[in-house]
Amino acid sequence: MEDLQIFPNYTAFLPGVKAAVVIDNSRDMFAKPDAMPYDVETEKKAVKVVPWGEDNDLPQQIIQKVGKSPDVSTGLLFNIQVGYGDGVVPCRYEIDKEGKKKVIPVYDNVEINDFFEKNDINGYLLEQLTDINHFYNVFPEIILNRDKSNARKAVELNHKEAAFSRWSKMDKKTGKIPYHLYSAQWGVKKTPEKDEIEITPVLDFKRPVMDILRRIGREKYPDGRIKDEKQYRYIVPVTFPTPGRSYYQKPYWYSIIESGWYDFATSIPEFKKYLIK
Q: How far apart, in whole angstroms, are the C-alpha atoms of residue 137 and residue 84?
């Protein structure tokens, strides 16, 4: 035991038996269930937040893990770049004389060009692709103008960082998530101060367009009533669905961590570096 060499990267070398030992075990980050929802105060109201991971810091842990693995980070970068392609190009369909459908780029629409210029749509797309590949959850925010409901439209489209986003607990009656909670302190504090949390209504996961039309008083609710909520910003929930997940998805690539291969792959170069030293 006197010859045991322990290195800073949670590996050790046993000269007597010529064996390497990995002390760290990243798969434990998925071993325990998520914590139960707990109360948080915002400046508008008190709600129950659903933690993302056992200590409500799983996104921060994932970001750290990705940064330590050249294989994982470059793999994610490839997926992001392929998804981005040439960016977003507004198009319309036209039917030619032979009845074939053609895709025609639209560059001369003043309203579309104005929206793209004011919202940096391609920058938005890149941010969304980055989060969807890392977490399978993205949190776009739409902001409406304040005109009458029959003239209201989306004028801003924002990306909200997944690492700083949390869901409130589902409504028992409707089974829907009512609020999105946004704070740069998630992962730093378990409970940020109320003035550090931004709370925003969430649209229906399955019918966001119908839901927002009802909320601005342009469509009837199932019971026949018409009501304008006078809200001007909403979160549109977007996920890549995985089995058994109601709040935060579990990307399939997380299996490299859960299987133990991540620890093995990241320990080898660190172990060799300290062994040489």
A: 17
- Alpha-carbon torsion 99, 102, 108, 111, what sign? positive
Assess whether pLDDT exceeds 90 at residue 269.
no
Enter the tokens of residue 37. 């929802």
**% of the chain residues with pLDDT over 90:** 62
Tell me how far apart the alpha carbons of residues 248 and 242 are, in angstroms, rounded to a whole number. Answer: 9
Q: What is the pLDDT of residues 206-246, one digit of tens each?
A: 999 999 999 999 999 989 999 888 899 999 999 999 998 98
CB count in 10 Å sphere of residue 253? 15
Q: Six-digit token pair at 57?
A: 């810091």
Give the pLDDT confidence of 41-68 residue by residue, as tens digits: 999 999 999 999 988 999 999 999 999 9
pTM: 0.84
Instruction: Classify the phi-psi angles of 230: left when phi > 0, otherwise alpha if psi is within -120 to 50, otherwise beta.
Output: left
Q: How many CA atoms lie within 13 A of 157 on its CB side?
A: 19
Taking alpha carbons only, the member of 28, 34, 33 closest to residue 52 is 34
Q: Which DSSP helix (H) or strand (E) runs through 241?
A: none
- Please give the full DSSP string across 33-82, using - where no structure is assigned: PPPPPEEEE-SS-EEEEE-SSTTS-HHHHHHHHHHT-HHHHHHHHHHHHH
- What are 22's strand-pairing partners? 11
Decide: 177 and 266 in contact? Cβ < 8 Å: no
